[in-house]
Design brief:
15 strands, 15-stranded mixed sheet, 3 helices, about 260 residues, globular, mainly beta, about 45% strand
Length: about 260
């Protein structure tokens, strides 16, 4: 690791690129390619995890950083979910990506109300889940989408997927599919279908090997990510590993869970 202000700035930029990969955020090409009427999707029983802090190592190519995800739920059923990229000690926090998802828990699980992406301390893009009128609108793009039951944002889907398998572990059988609508902050939305592939042992927090189910989400669009995620039953079925790959470029962002703590 380098020293000095220049090294810190370079490190911060590296982390921003690692966590801020286009594999996480769609661009205008995705919005244009999305179908105007999303299909009806199933809903599931859910068992969301308790409040937790998750620290991931994030890698994009040779760039390496960290992503801290905090998940909080209160007694009234409201939740707050955040992902914050970080660099070397002393690196300016305002230069790292910051995502927030806020909402509540309902009969279909995690129910986002607002998803926002911030840069340099300023909110740049957001999706609003307007349940009173049944649509998703955006801060910026004029697009709107029907608000489907069980719809998630680009951060909350990780918790929702874990909650589905935690509530019904019998779904963890090769070939089983779980689908949900996933909404980004740029006016993009579309169905994400995860197919259970196999169970394997992967490295978990503290370097301890844990069993995990590998799931795959394919993509029909060049700028929409293919997803591989490994859900660990011993960790509330939360992702112990995650890989997002853009079909056109092959560029991928990987995250490995290094620590899981209760607040």
């Amino acid at each position: 690791m380098g020293t000095g202000t220049v090294a810190h700035e370079e490190r911060t930029t590296t982390v921003a690129r690692a966590v801020e990969s286009p594999a996480f955020e769609a661009d205008a090409a995705v919005v244009a390619a999305m179908q105007p009427s999303p299909p009806a999707l199933p809903t599931y029983r859910t068992a969301p995890p308790p409040s937790l802090d998750l620290l991931y190592e994030a890698r994009r190519g040779t760039d390496l950083g960290q992503a801290r995800i905090t998940w909080r739920i209160d007694a009234e059923g409201h939740y707050a979910l955040e992902m914050q990229g970080s660099g070397a000690p002393g690196a300016p926090a305002a230069l790292t990506p910051h995502w927030t998802s806020r909402g509540r828990l309902d009969a279909d699980g995690v129910a986002p109300e607002r998803f926002a992406v911030s840069r340099r301390g300023r909110e740049r893009h957001a999706a609003n889940f307007r349940r009173d009128v049944g649509i998703v609108s955006f801060a910026g793009p004029a697009a709107t989408w029907p608000l489907a039951a069980g719809a998630q944002d680009r951060l909350s889907w990780m918790v929702q997927l874990a909650a589905v398998f935690q509530a019904d572990p019998k779904l963890a059988v090769a070939g089983t599919q779980v689908s949900m609508m996933v909404v980004g902050a740029h006016g993009d939305a579309g169905p994400w279908t995860f197919t259970v592939q196999r169970q394997m042992v992967v490295e978990g927090p503290g370097g301890v090997a844990v069993p995990a189910w590998q799931l795959h989400r394919d993509s029909a669009h060049a700028h929409d990510p293919q997803v591989q995620v490994w859900l660990a039953p011993s960790l509330h079925h939360l992702p112990v590993r995650l890989r997002l790959t853009l079909p056109r470029s092959g560029e991928s962002t990987e995250m490995h869970l290094r620590a899981l703590q209760t607040p």
